[in-house]
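Example complex used in Figure S2.
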Amino acid sequence: NLEDRFGDILKKVRGQGTLSEANIKDALREVRLSLLEADVHFSVVKSFIAEVKERALGNEVLASLSPGQDFVRIVADELTKVMGSAAAEIDLRAKPPLKILLMGLQGAGKTTTAGKLARLLKEKHQKEVLLVPADLQRPAAIHQLQTLARQVGVDAFDTQVGMPVSKVCQQALAQVDRRGQDVAIFDTAGRLAIDLELMEELREAKQLIEPTYTLLVVDAMTGQDAVNVAAEFKAQVGIDGVILTKLDGDARGGAALSVRQVTGAPIYFTGTGEKLDGLELFHPERVAQRILG
Amino acid sequence: LLRSGNGLDADTREELEALLITSDLGLQTTQSLLDAVEKNLSKEELKNPRLIKERLKTQMLELIRTTPAPWPEATPTVVMVVGVNGAGKTTTIGKLAARYAQRGKKVLLAAGDTFRAAAVEQLEIWGERAHVDVMKGDEGSDPASVIFSAVEKAKNERYDLLLCDTAGRLQNKVNLMNELSKVHRVIGKAMPSAPHEVLLVLDATTGQNAVSQAQKFSEAVPVQSLALTKLDGSAKGGIILAISDQLDLPVRLVGLGEGIDDLRDFDPHNFVHSLFE
Ligand SMILES: Nc1nc2c(ncn2[C@@H]2O[C@H](COP(=O)(O)OP(=O)(O)OP(=O)(O)O)[C@@H](O)[C@H]2O)c(=O)[nH]1
Ligand SMILES: Nc1nc2c(ncn2[C@@H]2O[C@H](COP(=O)(O)OP(=O)(O)OP(=O)(O)O)[C@@H](O)[C@H]2O)c(=O)[nH]1
Ligand SMILES: [Mg+2]
Ligand SMILES: [Mg+2]
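Predicted assembly (570 residues):
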């Protein structure tokens, strides 16, 4: 478990009569090093270390029999606070149609994730799904999602090149109503959080769709910019949840901690492969261990 | 060597650490740059913020001053484009195709991603936009054979430039990295001097994993230069300093948007300047 990961850190504090500023200094530096290497944002690390230090030097560790263990427990506890302690799940009992809007930076994995979600909802939850290609920008994006829809065996809205995004959203919603489908998943174009025009387009789409879940798709290898991306998408559009992709790679995934800290939104799923079965529930403790290295 | 009192004061050091780390230079490269600043400036100079900044910029430029060699002229010059999923390979190839077509070169694109949905269609659209030919194989065919055929065609029909697109892959996937090595070997079989360039595409929003990408891709194929994409975003792309520090790979190209003209040659001075904005 998480506390087993702290072997090295524990050695630095072991055998001390009590936790003092001096003997936890090395251990704190170790934790800071580990989090920064994992791409957790500089300021998220700073406030995390401050929290740990305050608790470690506070009342709960005074005259402890095993101060090293207490230090480790505090770090694990603080990490769990940010990452969450239990897997968060999408509420499938909500009144249909369940509408999911996917957004995020270019190349994060939105289109592939849309296909994976469709497959999960169809195979595991027997839902009727409509995949909506609402990326009118990227070459062959419509074709890409329609191909995935075929592979999964779900319906795809027949988006035409040149249609405005608003029209796609309206007509797709009308189709879901007519056909009585349970779920509609809207795939959007990748966009920079600093692109005002495209963020406005996204806001308009959200207003039209009124999604049950607006999900930010984040690449697990994202660096310090994760904080800017999460903050901007939250401020300009609103985030109901996050999907972290490409966790089958060897990136430590510190972006997850930064995004959690900045948005407080649950991470619902992780992408764990290129194929359509590569989607799992987010396990906070597993990802916390990975971030700590 | 510990010279007491001959370093940056703690607040200044923390401020500079924050600037460099949040630009994705990584802790290791940040610390070695700041240590070098302390070594190279006098005690008095270390109290002057402008001098500290100038020294830091000079050192950064030293790290990234290797300019990549120009592509050798051959018939065709073969460039193999590699990188992780979603980095911007296909788009970068489209931009390069347009650049060289506009210069009157005869360009061929090889649709070497035979796996991902609509990968070939995406490259074909870029081919149309750039007014260049695209060579593709049958659906689901082996990438190595598609690229082999493309090299053959490029030689026989006397193209100036062949750009080979490959499927995205994560560097820890041994079988996919082996596939990449195989594609590289097969290119060499079709034309002994080829590929003349292996270009690794990195997304500027990537964190320290970029170093592992550069390392592992270089183990599979002889990566010669980098293309840094999505630098039009808020990410600073400091990973290239970490990579230069550890692997000495030059940056050739920068992607500044999703349009066909959004490609620039890497300019170290502009890059370092923008880190301090
Ligand atoms: N290994 C791995 N690859 C993934 C995962 N999710 C997506 N990918 C790959 O990442 C690349 C980008 O995925 P897309 O679905 O096209 O990303 P996108 O966000 O829709 O991209 P844009 O529409 O251009 O913004 C593709 O090569 C996908 O196969 C994952 O969890 N693991
Ligand atoms: N803003 C911006 N977006 C870019 C840039 N380069 C590529 N993109 C976008 O990034 C996304 C992924 O680009 P692709 O060219 O499909 O990436 P890829 O490496 O070929 O992806 P896979 O083949 O799936 O591994 C697309 O939405 C591109 O438009 C850039 O320089 N700036
Ligand atoms: Mg997409
Ligand atoms: Mg591609």
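DSSP finds ten helices and eight strands in chain B. The two ends of chain B are 33 Å apart (CA to CA).
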